[in-house]
Amino acid sequence: MPEFNSPPRVNVLGVGISVLNLDSAVVALRDALAAGRRGYVTVTGVHGVMESQEDEALRQIHNASLLTTPDGMPMVWLSRLAGHKSAGRVYGPDLMESVFAWTQHSGHTHFFYGGNPGVAEELKAKLEQRYPGIRIVGTFTPPFRPLNPDELAGLARQVGDLQPDFFWVGLSTPKQERFMAEHMAKLDAKIMIGVGAAFDFHAGRVRQAPRWIQRSGFEWLYRLCSEPRRLWRRYFRNNPRFVWRVFGQHTGLRRVPDCQN
Description:
This protein has helices at residues 22-34, 46-51, 56-63, 73-81, 92-103, 119-130, 149-162, 175-183, 198-203, 211-216, 219-226, 228-251; strands at residues 9-12, 15-18, 39-44, 67-70, 109-114, 135-140, 166-170, 191-194. It is an alpha/beta fold. The chain has one domain: Rossmann fold, CATH 3.40.50. The strands form two sheets. It has a six-stranded parallel sheet, sandwiched between helices. β5, α6 (119-130) and β6 (135-140) form a beta-alpha-beta unit. α1 crosses α5 and α11 (219-226) runs antiparallel to α12. The longest helix is centred in the last third of the chain and has 24 residues, at 228-251.
């Protein structure tokens, strides 16, 4: 059986961001499956890093992942600043598309967990139309609360019967990261990937920012303008603090924890 070589990580305020681009992320997932490795993937930008500053358990969840991909351009810029010129953005919706394109005829199976009522089913229908031959074997829409024992047992039975290769989690950060870390050992799926709003984007319920805005590093502003009531606290609280703390880390004025588990 081939070995899985985990990519190096860049320490961003104590969170280890895997040195990846979209192509190498797909290769890493392919290699992990071939090597029989199980684990979860966190797709992490400024929001996830800043949530981890006040939540040690969440920081450890990121650092114990199979991969923690550079979701936002600041993660890419900091990786390149650390000397990793090949680093590129591994954005949740793009990662989904790339994995689905790769697995369209490979036989690998997919399961969707999350989203508002009806979203996972809409997503399944749209992706099956876009990628003929893709194997989406199940969906589960959770309530807006932790699963009770009966619901968890039902989910475990469903996943155990299907044994999907990819278990996609469409919740918010940090809810999806905590879910994956807690349930990875309880559910018979090989790789869990938390992709947040990608369910809504690919189901057609929410519009994505244009590519040029995504590459500019100002996607947060586009999303803020699209959903100001939901997102203004996140961006106006997190972004200035992130810049200040990264400045402290890189000037040596601020010590940050090690990102190795």
